[in-house]
Amino acid sequence: MGVGIEVEDLNAWYGQTHTLKGINLQIPANSATALIGPSGCGKSTFVRCLNRMHETNPVARAEGTVRVGNVDIYKDASPVEVRRRIGMVFERPNPFPTMSIYDNVASGLKLNGFRNKRVLDEVVERSLRQAALWDEVKDHLKSKSGASLSGGQQQRLCIARAIAVDPEVLLMDEPASALDPVSTAKIEDLIFQLKDEYTIVIVTHNMQQAARVAEKTGFFLSGHLVEFDSTHKIFTNPSDKRTEDYITGRFG
Amino acid sequence: MRIRFHQSLDELKEKLLVMAGMAEQAIQRSIEAYRTRDLEICELVFKSEPAINRLEREIDQAALDLLAMEQPMAIDLRFILSVIRINADLERVGDQAVNIAVRVREMGAYSNVDLPVDIPRAASLASAMVRKALQAFIEGDAELARSVLAMDDEVDAMNDAAFTALSALIKRQPELTPQALNALIISRNLERVGDHATNVAEDVIFWVRGADVRHKGSVAS
User: Fold this and answer.
1) Pfam families, per this entry (chain B) (predicted)?
2) Can you say whether the dihedral through the CA atoms of B129, B57, B66, A208 is positive or negative?
3) What confidence category does residue B221 fall into, taking pLDDT thresholds of 50, 70 and 90?
4) A5-94+169-247, what's its fold?
């Protein structure tokens, strides 16, 4: 099951550049939360702080508190543990190109020491079913590589790989921006279904997509969280003029 | 910046203002026809109806295109929804003008008698409501729109008074029934014009403030 995320006074820097400025918000469990804003506003930095990916950049640092469930991920957990509990899907599908479809999905578990074939088979099937990919790949799980799939299938494979390790949170950074409309619709349907099991945070430039899939939406601008409210409120009658100007295309 | 989209919104607003001008002129003409019993003015009202209907379809299509092609959000989305609703109300104002002109033409077949109803005053009030609601739309002024809502009660009260007075007249002088019934229908048409102006004002408030103030005073609400 998904867990809620509480962020308190989160700041992030790249070198001297202050990219996130005092972010406070609460992301509800088992829901989809969308983050929108113009390029460079800090939304991707923010999600990278949620699973400690930000600190993989040697010149980057973050300060503040991020609690996932009851765990302060900067104090009480190692980066490896954090990334197991918080999966991430990127803009460009990135399956391991030389691995089979099966091994792509099983890779996280194998890395964590699982070797029981029956368990692995079960997890691979369950994950591929959850990612709405099972029916399309079940006949060549081990004979085809992840790279042989279409872009949309590769992205769903990456989602299957992320959920195979049974995370509580799924972060998605522009997960459909490189996909055609049909594949995008499949990913959006998938997000809708995955909310039952996971807490989802999705960064998107596509405001219609945010409106379709998310219960809550946050608008970032110049490193600030300008507004965080129900998606309905944000897209029909936002409280802040800057949010309204952005979503109506008056700037950005 | 979505410059082309925002130009399209301005064009949509201008089209609706043309529609508003036509509907307002139709209602003014129908009242003038009542006052003067001039059947030529009635003809002008009848002739204006197809143009109003044509423009209604054109505005709806333009609004539909913007919804489909531009996927507007927030105040822009509310604006387009308001335009669609206001457009329908203005077309109905045009219909009311035609209804009044039909009654005036009918009244021409009977002798001109003094009736216990102040149609010009009701017309003046209903027209003022339409004008004020449209001014609120032009200026995006929710407060001005709100002031229109308060005027509707007065128009309703005048229509109720007309009903009472004309019913009594029919009882007293049944030979005046045709004239009284026509006047009653005109009073009812003007009351409906006031309702349409109220709808326009509510749509302006929705557009500007995002607040749905419809049906606040209805019996069921």
Assistant:
1) PhoU
2) positive
3) very low
4) Rossmann fold (3.40.50)
